[in-house]
Amino acid sequence: MSEMPRLIATLGVRTCISPLFAATSFAHRIFLNPQVADLFRSLYLGTIIESGRRLGETLLDIVTSRMSHILLSLPLMSIHPVLVFVVKAEFSTGDFAYDWVLHYLENHRVWNESRSFKVVARNPSSRPNQSSGLGAGDGQPLAFFEPAPATPSLLRWKTRHFVPLTGVKSYWLSVNKSVAGYVHYDTEEEVGGTLVLRLWSRNRRILDEFVQSAREFYVQSKVRPRRVNPDKEPSGSLLTAHFPQADLSHDWILAYLRSADALQDAMQFEISTKQSDLGWGTGPKSDVRYMPAHDSTQQFLFTSPKTGRSTWLQVSVKPGFQTNWMNDQPTTGGSITITLHSSDKNVLTDLINCAREKYLEIGLSKVTVHLADSRGDWGKTITKPRRPVSTLILPSNVKEMILGDAREFLASEAWYNAAGIPHRRGYLLYGEPGTGKSSTIHAVAGELGLEIYFISLANPGVDDYSLANLIRATPSRCILLLEDIDCAFPSRDNGEEEPDIDQYGKPVWHQSAPPQSQVTLSGLLNVLDSVSSEEGRLTFATTNHIENLDPALIRAGRMDVKVQYKLADSVQMEQVFKRFFPLISNDASPFPVYTEVELDDYATKFARAVPPEVHSIAQIQGYLLTKKRDPAGAVEGVQEWLEAQEEEKRVLRELKERRKTEWERRMALMREEDEAIHKEDQGNGDEPSNGECTGDTERRSIGIQAGVGLDS
Ligand SMILES: Nc1ncnc2c1ncn2[C@@H]1O[C@H](COP(=O)(O)OP(=O)(O)OP(=O)(O)O)[C@@H](O)[C@H]1O
User: Fold this and answer.
1) What's this model's pTM, rounded to 2 decimal places?
2) Can you point out the beta strands (E) in 100-147?
3) H-helix or E-strand containing 91?
4) CA of 129 relative to ligand 1 center, distance in Å
């Protein structure tokens, strides 16, 4: 080629002299040039080869279309070397493309023309597109037809495109499946294998079209895809989202999966009869709930209501575990992992929005309560039926006042911001047990559509640090419920705990002290005031002993509204009575029938008979439950019940008295013994140093802690 410029220059000069001479000389020189000659030789050879290939292909087309049945029975391996112009593609079992092609072949007309199959029934799960399970109730698995391993099959495949002159072209392809890939039914591990496809065309584009057709067919058939290990997938190909149990989004997803019946194909469940569990069962009250078994993985097709697009999701549910088997702590540490067969983040957004809507829809009839676990994380979530505010029996205006105040607070965020006051409000409900404090909070939550985040400060797993974490993890616009807030700071005056007394009046000593709160007052005050606390939160605290609370805790700004709950007065008693005995209009009722006037009369008599502000509504409710449907009987039996109540109180008082006396006697005895030992040691000149204890003293204290009472 380096001679080219010289040649052109010479030609230029010669052309000026004689054009004919110049042309002849140029052609001569060109053909003498070895590189140019090589070029012409290759073109010539290429033309012959291409013509040969086309001729061969046409002949092969004619022969194979006429004699396909003969060809199919030939060992094709021996023919392949002859077929120089084929496009070969390999698909390995661990890949989606393998599934597309195999599914396409299995369902395509061309495959049914094949004469070579491998029939499998033992392990249908090796075929991602086949639903597993036993056949139609006969206890035997179904049979599936796969390309036979190591036996090539010859198929005729039509392209999709119509070409004007030649029409729709079809091509021969041979499929050769090497050792079949399968999933071990125990480990679900893919064991290798390849599918080799040879397309009898030199045109790569035909292969592209084949794979594309297989892929589209697979997508359209909504075939359940193979299970994937998100960690092993190439990054960016599949989206994976984790929803930890401690986060509200976990419950959204759980609610959605449950409503979408996403686990209908699951094969491993944990069964729960607790209706409050957020499980998968959707049936009526009597039904059990089905929780996906530990680490189970399910797949289901999510159709976005926004775009109408369907995407396969793989859901792995890791149920929470009980951190402390000694007490009935809620489970914790669970999570849901969702892998999308898509890399489009919008699908994930659609899923989350959809799940949230479903959750809110379900929540309209329920109150959701999030429980703090013993590690200081938000653990299990339970749902309770909403309690109508009308069922609360409280002195006039109390419930209206609480509800109105909470409503106004939620609606006045802008005002709080403008005034520079943190948008949060605290309510302290205090008073006798069983007077309706907790019931009020549940009713308010239902009425305002808020979720409850429940923390027991007596929970040994909750300390200042975890309390701060828990509160930080609550969303805005929720109810933070701190029940029995006085338990957190038990009165430190009586360091020595008194023993219980058994039925014979003997002291029963505790082996270990009951769990005491790890939360300090300053820790609690800090989190209540913390600037990081979510705004728009209603904090409800309840206590039976307001007198034990530090004034700092209940000052305005921390506890803005304080409501006292008293034992039932006459009006409340009448109301409880009437709630228990609704009017029966049906004369055929097997229960005593009474008129409205009669019921009013019974209620008044009942309220007069029971002394006011002595019993809680819970106690009265307990009595009336024994007289269901019999208001007259309830009035008749009330005196007897009151006497039984008095007797019960007397026995308890007496037991307490005896326990106190016994405790004081023991303490005196121990002090005497200690003094005696002390004197004895002094006599021996054996003064024990401060803080040390003698063997005897040690024995006594161990005896008390180990629950061995000293004989009187
Ligand atoms: N004022 C009330 N109105 C309606 N039901 C009540 C009322 N007080 C108590 N009850 C009933 O008594 C039971 C106990 O009530 P609740 O738990 O609300 O009381 P509490 O004051 O929170 O008790 P504690 O201080 O022991 O936690 C519930 O079944 C509730 O329905």
Assistant:
1) 0.57
2) 117-120, 144-147
3) strand 87-92
4) 56
